[in-house]
Amino acid sequence: MKHVFQCYFSVLKRVPNVALLEPVLEGLSKFAHLLGVEFFEDIVLTMEGLVDKENLRLLDRLYCINTVFVILSGEGQLLNVDPSRFYRSVYRLINQLPFEKRPEARQKQITMMAKALDLMINERRKQLPLSRVAAFVKRLLGVATVLDDISALCLVALVRSFFIAHSKLVQLVEEDDAEGGAVGVFRADIDDPDVSNALGSSVRPELKMLTRVREKAIRSFNS
Fold it and tell me: Domain ranges in the chain?
């Protein structure tokens, strides 16, 4: 396996060819848990350089992010790496999901995004500010309102897992009797989850919209 990874790194560092990068990034994402410690720092630095390249497919950038967090969730957690930029990257990429019109391609994107976000949000729950998690909840539910039913259900299921892992998120759905609801404006126009003011808002509008426009499966899932 070591020789396979060496081939991957050779492609990543020497061949700026998107056609070759795609299978390499998919392979790294799938087998990152088998990487030796000696590769960790190089691969994280390489993924940092690739994740925001506009010429890469959305799916490939998600492979980059997933690879990094597979590493950071294992022995790589000892690396001196600030993962904040990867949170900002995937937060921005969420808004691209509705632009994929091919159902199979979109499902692949959502599956990989869910896999990466489970590592980023649920597995690292003790290391994250609640405001960041709340921003992901708001953005995911907002995007779910404009997706097809199957895709929307996947995102709602992902958000539900966030509520289970981060119990204090319940404030996003609670009524505030004194104020008539949550105060503050969620800054959906800002691509930094840490300054979006998600905790000052509510997800009740998104949930009501999902209940109104989606089929019975989603309505019952929300209730």
Answer: 1-81, 111-173+181-222
